[in-house]
Design brief:
- The protein has one helix and eleven strands.
- It is mostly beta strands.
- Strands 2, 3, 5, 6, 7 and 9 form a six-stranded antiparallel beta sheet that branches. Strands 1-10-4-8-11 form a five-stranded mixed beta sheet, with no helix packed on it.
- The protein starts with 8 loop residues before the first strand and ends with a strand.
């Protein structure tokens, strides 16, 4: 049997936190040598009227300026009524000229518990599982 981590490298993208009225506190992910990154965003309890949005950004260096990678692959309008206590995926390609990725987004006026991990893959040309959208609350791929 193959081992998942022979093909996938996990990294912390957002440490577990409760945020409100602020930008999410993301950590830069060094994706040098990989073809894709799947960010798994875990959303816990959300206060009344809470909202959360996030998108992948990229930079040439870990401390550089990050720009949004694509407007079509963003998790938007995650609200308390329908978005709490779910797992979301944002799957993006790695630009070899800008291999440092970071999630960017905002938590609305009420508290949102959230965290994220990044799964770096395709170092050896391994294909993604085509059935991911059947087990995740939302799956975006560009």
């Amino acid at each position: 049997m193959e081992e998942l981590f022979a093909y996938v490298k996990p990294a912390i993208a957002i440490l577990p936190v409760s945020k409100s009225g602020a930008a999410i506190a993301a950590t830069a992910v060094d994706a040098r040598g990989y073809g894709r990154v799947a960010f798994l965003l875990e959303v816990g309890a959300m206060g009344t009227g809470a909202g959360l949005s996030c998108a992948a950004t990229e930079s040439a260096t870990s401390g550089g300026t990050y720009a949004q990678q694509s407007t079509t692959a963003a998790l938007t309008s995650l609200v308390a009524a329908t978005g709490a206590s779910k797992l979301y995926a944002l799957d993006v390609p790695v630009n070899s000229d800008k291999p440092y990725l970071k999630l960017y987004g905002t938590a609305g006026t009420a508290a949102v518990l959230h965290s994220a991990i990044a799964l770096l893959y395709r170092q050896n040309g391994v294909n993604a599982d085509p059935n991911l959208d059947s087990i995740l609350a939302q799956y975006k791929r560009i």
